[in-house]
Amino acid sequence: MTPRVLYEKKDAVARITINRPAVLNAMDAQTHAELAEIWDDVETDDDVRVAVLTGAGERAFSVGQDLKERATLTDRGVAAGTFGSRGQPGWPRLTERFTMSKPVVARINGYALGGGFELALACDIIVAAEHAVFALPEVRLGLVPGAGGAFRLARQLPMKAAMGHLLTGRRLTAARAMHYGLVNDVVEAEHLDRSVAGWTDDLIRGAPLSVRAIKECVLQSVDMPLEWAFSARYPWEERRVRSRDAAEGPRAFLEKRDPVWLGY
């Protein structure tokens, strides 16, 4: 069987490509199962510092759930899910990997619809081509954005803007997404890889434990009162503060050289 997902690791970057361009990278059960194994490997492989998630071809990042497969399952009497993917292939999916400590960059090369948009919302950085289009059209299909779209969009857009898109399924252009601060960069399609490489280079330049500690504390504390955030426990920060890298950065600055990160 042809892999639903391509996976390559090179120079500390894991590149993950949903490989179903004929169906605009719609995700079926097998796709989710393959992605789960990949996310496990990304998190545990110390040689991987950052992951880039994209879709094959130039038309789509992903249009989300494979509705043909969903219709077949419904005909067989398999009930549709609601929020979350527990008990389904590929659990926990990226949208529910709340302790994923390494940064994930979404490379959006076209449509990011439904579950595809939800995947992008779960990434830390989004780089979009000018022709990219985002939407959560579930309301028009009798569904809900069950992979976190209803929750994350309301946290990442102004509330009225989020409700407008969630309740109508209206599409969001790359330019409009940039206006809202939903994406980090919007570039011409021919410059997409260059922009993504710029982000991965900068992420790798940072100390690996610092990157993981910062991601952890931001995501864990975002809904906390500020006083609680200062006193909360952050395991990756506990590792960083006791690490050799915590001393290497200031030492390299004094010695006027590039730091050599050990990751411990």
Q: Span between N and C termini?
A: 40 Å
Biggest β-sheet, characterized? 6 strands, mixed
Which regions are unreliable across 5 or more consecutive residues at pLDDT < 50?
none
Number of helices: 11
Query: Rounded to an integer, what's the Rg over CA atoms?
Result: 19 Å
Strand order of the main beta sheet, please?
1-2-3-5-7-10
Strand tally = 10
Instruction: Name the average pLDDT.
Output: 96
Structure, explained:
- This protein is an alpha/beta fold and 264 residues long.
- It is 41% helix and 16% strand.
- It has helices spanning 29-44, 67-75, 115-121, 149-156, 159-168, 174-180, 192-205, 208-221, 226-231, 235-241, 245-254, and strands at 5-10, 13-18, 50-55, 60-62, 104-108, 111-113, 125-129, 133-135, 172-173, 185-187.
- The strands form two sheets. Strands 1-2-3-5-7-10 form a six-stranded mixed sheet, with helices on both faces. A four-stranded mixed sheet has the order 4-6-8-9.
- A hairpin with a 2-residue loop joins β1 (5-10) and β2.
- α4 (149-156) runs antiparallel to α5.
- It is globular.
